[in-house]
């Protein structure tokens, strides 16, 4: 298939682009390199451009006849979305609208969208399935929920068949460490803990130790980037085979606490880095774990890296290599 990948130079997009290349697909990446990197694109060609640049986007759609669009490009920092909401609605929602206008105008048959567990907000139960109410508690989650809604309405009106993948906590790196999380000032727990173990950060802070969980710290469902990337290829196969539009959680269905993650990073790295207890971070639900029944059923997706130490080992390997680049 010939596939347009927006945000293909970023952390998740670049892993998917690599796997698409390995599977023999033809890839065109559209990315403004605001947080992505040219070196991370291991397959296909890059068109450097902003999604807000309608003329440039039109030119890409005129030059190629795409079988599918995979849409990763977005801003992703939750606290920033609270401070600057319109920045998030502009890039995540308005730019998705502009992209969907082209998808419709040029008759692209399939669309895969990067959604997030943040659409669930503070769920009543820690294990959530796709039918849980969508009550995002920050503009980032709301911007993604609105995009999901546009996609759904367009689908009903004869638009592309689509899969919206709701990612839980994405972590780890390419097992061969060619690419990995490379965003400066990343806030993701496993990356921060690896940076603390490397001495790039003074310490790891645990945000909140008084949650109603067994050890008092928040529980999340960490999914290895390789398994998450594989879900996108499975979604493409599913849509190309005539599968109906679907919204699917991406997670392992099992959670780990912040303390358990810190212990795993110590164990894997062999470094006793400093860990301090700190107040809760605003907007963190106590526990968020994916019910992944639907993605297993609809896509036949089965994880291959469902092991916290494996996720941490690949993240650690990448961080060490990246630090020495
Ligand atoms: N990382 C996670 O844990 C996580 C969890 C849930 C959902 N997601 C979603 O996955 C997607 C990818 O996230 P990521 O972690 O790879 O982030 P990232 O910042 O590494 O990648 C985003 C990419 O999009 C590009 N981009 C941003 N705005 C653009 C624009 N206007 N025009 C062109 N390119 C633009 C950036 O340069 C970058 O390459 C996002 O949609 C995000 O909301 C990520
Ligand atoms: O230095 C740190 C960083 C994080 N945490 C905690 O670790 C957990 C995970 O935090 P983080 O890695 O920042 O991920 P989340 O806040 O759970 O959000 C991620 O996962 C969401 C889906 O669940 C995505 O929508 C977001 O984009 C992505 O950042 C949370 O309890 C944090 O409070 C710490 O204690 N210390």
Automatic annotation (TrEMBL):
<dbReference type="InterPro" id="IPR001509">
    <property type="entry name" value="Epimerase_deHydtase"/>
</dbReference>
<protein>
    <recommendedName>
        <fullName>UDP-glucose 4-epimerase</fullName>
        <ecNumber>5.1.3.2</ecNumber>
    </recommendedName>
</protein>
<comment type="subunit">
    <text>Homodimer.</text>
</comment>
<keyword id="KW-0520">NAD</keyword>
<comment type="similarity">
    <text>Belongs to the NAD(P)-dependent epimerase/dehydratase family.</text>
</comment>
<dbReference type="InterPro" id="IPR005886">
    <property type="entry name" value="UDP_G4E"/>
</dbReference>
<keyword id="KW-0119">Carbohydrate metabolism</keyword>
<keyword id="KW-0413">Isomerase</keyword>
<feature type="domain" description="NAD-dependent epimerase/dehydratase">
    <location>
        <begin position="3"/>
        <end position="251"/>
    </location>
</feature>
<dbReference type="InterPro" id="IPR036291">
    <property type="entry name" value="NAD(P)-bd_dom_sf"/>
</dbReference>
<dbReference type="GO" id="GO:0033499">
    <property type="term" value="P:galactose catabolic process via UDP-galactose, Leloir pathway"/>
</dbReference>
<dbReference type="GO" id="GO:0003978">
    <property type="term" value="F:UDP-glucose 4-epimerase activity"/>
</dbReference>
<dbReference type="Pfam" id="PF01370">
    <property type="entry name" value="Epimerase"/>
</dbReference>
<comment type="pathway">
    <text>Carbohydrate metabolism; galactose metabolism.</text>
</comment>
């Amino acid at each position: 298939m010939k596939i347009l990948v927006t945000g293909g130079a970023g952390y998740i997009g670049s892993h998917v682009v690599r796997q698409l290349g390995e599977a023999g697909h033809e890839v065109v990446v559209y990315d403004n390199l605001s947080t992505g990197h040219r070196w991370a694109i291991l397959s296909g060609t890059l068109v450097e451009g902003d999604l807000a640049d309608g003329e440039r986007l039109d030119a890409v759609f005129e030059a190629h006849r795409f079988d599918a669009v995979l849409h990763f490009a977005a801003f992703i920092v939750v606290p920033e979305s609270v401070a600057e909401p319109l920045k998030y609605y502009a890039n995540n929602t308005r730019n998705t609208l502009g992209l969907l206008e082209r998808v419709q105008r040029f008759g692209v048959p399939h669309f895969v969208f990067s959604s997030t567990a943040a659409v669930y907000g503070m769920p009543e139960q820690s294990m959530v399935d796709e039918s849980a109410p969508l009550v995002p508690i920050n503009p980032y989650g709301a911007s993604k929920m609105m995009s999901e809604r546009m996609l759904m309405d367009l689908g009903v009106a004869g638009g592309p068949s689509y899969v919206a993948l709701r990612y839980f906590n994405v972590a780890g790196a390419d097992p061969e460490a060619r690419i990995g999380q490379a965003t400066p000032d990343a806030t993701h727990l496993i990356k921060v803990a690896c940076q603390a173990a490397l001495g790039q950060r003074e310490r790891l802070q645990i945000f909140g130790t008084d949650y109603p969980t067994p050890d008092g710290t928040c529980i999340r469902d960490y999914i290895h980037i390789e398994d998450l990337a594989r879900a996108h290829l499975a979604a493409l196969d599913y849509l190309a085979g005539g599968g109906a539009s679907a919204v699917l959680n991406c997670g392992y269905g099992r959670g780990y606490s912040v303390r358990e993650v810190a212990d795993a990073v110590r164990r894997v790295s062999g470094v006793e880095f400093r860990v301090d207890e700190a107040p809760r971070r605003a907007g963190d639900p106590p526990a968020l774990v994916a019910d992944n029944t639907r993605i297993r059923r609809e896509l036949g997706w089965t994880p291959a890296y469902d092991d916290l130490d494996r996720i941490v080992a690949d993240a650690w390997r990448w961080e060490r290599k990246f630090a020495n680049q």
